[in-house]
């Protein structure tokens, strides 16, 4: 495993970070989830990312149990706040002071820890003044409940204003967690250069495009039984933007490139996002422990310019690059 600094801070995290979105507390049994976490630890992963909304708080509970007994100082534990949790009452969502303060306490209890290393705004809250949100985060940091603050799926302008306010209030906003993959490059034109200027790193989710870049989905064929594309709990909805025959045909052209590099297609996809200097970590999940060991083999891989060019040529015009997609896909108001 290799480690990278997170933003303009002294915090180092594993460049392959284990995330439990769509798996723990829902798609896989708790015993299997615990085995996946242990496989991550055995592979040298020290950084774990979750959120209160995953499986409506159950994912945090599963992760807390799986990490119980590990040396806390050797781990970096991340979680998030924004989406509705609990009975979905009027204040059970968003980035108000009330929701942040109540949510961080719930997360710490479920994770069985006194603090999280990174507390992230899971989306931008259009209904709460940003000053209120950032003041609440400042207080969370001063109370010792979080060491650093991050955001997820914020636009470049939102990140810039968030960093300005964080400096005024005496804490560090050091990370952004966007979707990023060979197929989804919407952060490259605005979010990445703004973040690099401001000392903010990316922790990217879905580097394998929800499994599409593994090559297991074939054009003109039904998705494999039990795959994310067949999961009606949320996986199928997330992956459908990539499940077009033109995309799947282009993805198959990546196989000889991966073969020549001595990598699986999934490893190539993870290694590709890690070539971006502004990316501190790629988030990977697993439904089986052996998947963790395979994904970790992408750590430390360096792809030369010829390989990067061959990937661009293979994917052609199916790559989404529009920076406006970050704002377009964001919630326009709190989701109740």
UniProtKB/TrEMBL annotation:
<keyword id="KW-0521">NADP</keyword>
<protein>
    <submittedName>
        <fullName>Aldo/keto reductase</fullName>
    </submittedName>
</protein>
<keyword id="KW-0560">Oxidoreductase</keyword>
<dbReference type="InterPro" id="IPR005399">
    <property type="entry name" value="K_chnl_volt-dep_bsu_KCNAB-rel"/>
</dbReference>
<comment type="similarity">
    <text>Belongs to the shaker potassium channel beta subunit family.</text>
</comment>
<dbReference type="GO" id="GO:0016491">
    <property type="term" value="F:oxidoreductase activity"/>
</dbReference>
<feature type="domain" description="NADP-dependent oxidoreductase">
    <location>
        <begin position="15"/>
        <end position="314"/>
    </location>
</feature>
<dbReference type="InterPro" id="IPR020471">
    <property type="entry name" value="AKR"/>
</dbReference>
<dbReference type="InterPro" id="IPR023210">
    <property type="entry name" value="NADP_OxRdtase_dom"/>
</dbReference>
<dbReference type="Pfam" id="PF00248">
    <property type="entry name" value="Aldo_ket_red"/>
</dbReference>
<dbReference type="GO" id="GO:0005829">
    <property type="term" value="C:cytosol"/>
</dbReference>
<dbReference type="InterPro" id="IPR036812">
    <property type="entry name" value="NAD(P)_OxRdtase_dom_sf"/>
</dbReference>
